[in-house]
């Protein structure tokens, strides 16, 4: 993919945990005395998909830096698990504080529509960062990688690694209803069909859990002896798949293409546990999210869909692509 960014036309309080520890923000004091529509209201809230995870930590770093530069404050409230039942109470809980805008990565493309619409109806600007709802009427702007293209890129990368070898490939996905990873699988499936030597045996869900991903790899190695490749659609599934292959003594024999570039994935790429990673640019997703929120709040021009960089990283080019490695703290 290109390094050039493209703007496309195209509860409980206990459940709240803080990415703030990693990035220095504060949580739980959203909003101020002024209402959401007042120009004096400079309060933003970031609701990532899950806490303490390098993709969202990197996003939070981008959000915090841009908010500071633009004279806004940002509080981050993240669910402990990537699921709507942990995320929904956070969304409804901030209504009373009336932040000016909320930047959110909805953990389900349907289940979060109601809670997010409540924000919109309360006059709070809603900006989607990373994932999105099926209902495009709620958010004013959505900033994301082009995930379908990311899946296609993963298929091309895996096909190149496999070469003329004949055999089966598997997709390890997170949970159905996650807009990003659903799109990655869709793009992968379309593209891999172009390679007659490769048989796509379908996707298995891991509930975004590395341990489940590892055990699905070992089970598939037994049921599918001609397995030659795996595409893991995100960070946890990838880290788990690398463990599964290692445990089975199949590292390097079954090609593994992951998504994201967590510190663990990057060290696993270096030691040969992954053959390639498709990395995103979460800090820019966060920065653009703030810019769009501020534009929406100040009568500026808002871009409905913004697509950010995706790059394929291998051991050979990893030194040149290190700016895409995710952070564990800002
Ligand atoms: O891959 C990212 C993100 O894009 C996706 O929506 C959910 O999983 C990650 O956060 C990585 O764990």
3D structure, described in words:
Helix 5 packs across helix 6. This protein folds into two domains: 162 residues, Rossmann fold; 133 residues, Rossmann fold. It is an alpha/beta fold. The protein has ten helices and 14 strands. It is 37% helix and 19% strand. Strand 8, helix 6 and strand 9 form a beta-alpha-beta unit. The N terminus is likely disordered. Strands 3-2-5-6-7-13 form a six-stranded parallel beta sheet, sandwiched between helices. It has a six-stranded mixed beta sheet with strand order 9-8-10-11-12-14, sandwiched between helices. The longest helix is centred in the last third of the chain and has 17 residues. Bound molecules: alpha-D-tagatopyranose (T6T). The site of alpha-D-tagatopyranose has 14 residues, from helix 6 and helix 8.
Name the helix and strand elements from N-terminus to C-terminus, one letter apiece.
EHEHEEHEHEEHEHEHEHEHEHEE
* Name given to the CATH homologous superfamily of the largest domain: Response regulator
Pick out the low-confidence regions: 1-34
Strand content: 15-25%
Helix proportion: 25-40%
| CATH topology group of the largest domain | Rossmann fold
Q: Report, as a whole number of angstroms, the end-to-end distance.
A: 26 Å
From the helix content, strand content and strand pairing, which structural class follows? alpha/beta
List the ligand species.
Answer: alpha-D-tagatopyranose
Cα-atom radius of gyration: 20 Å
Shape: elongated
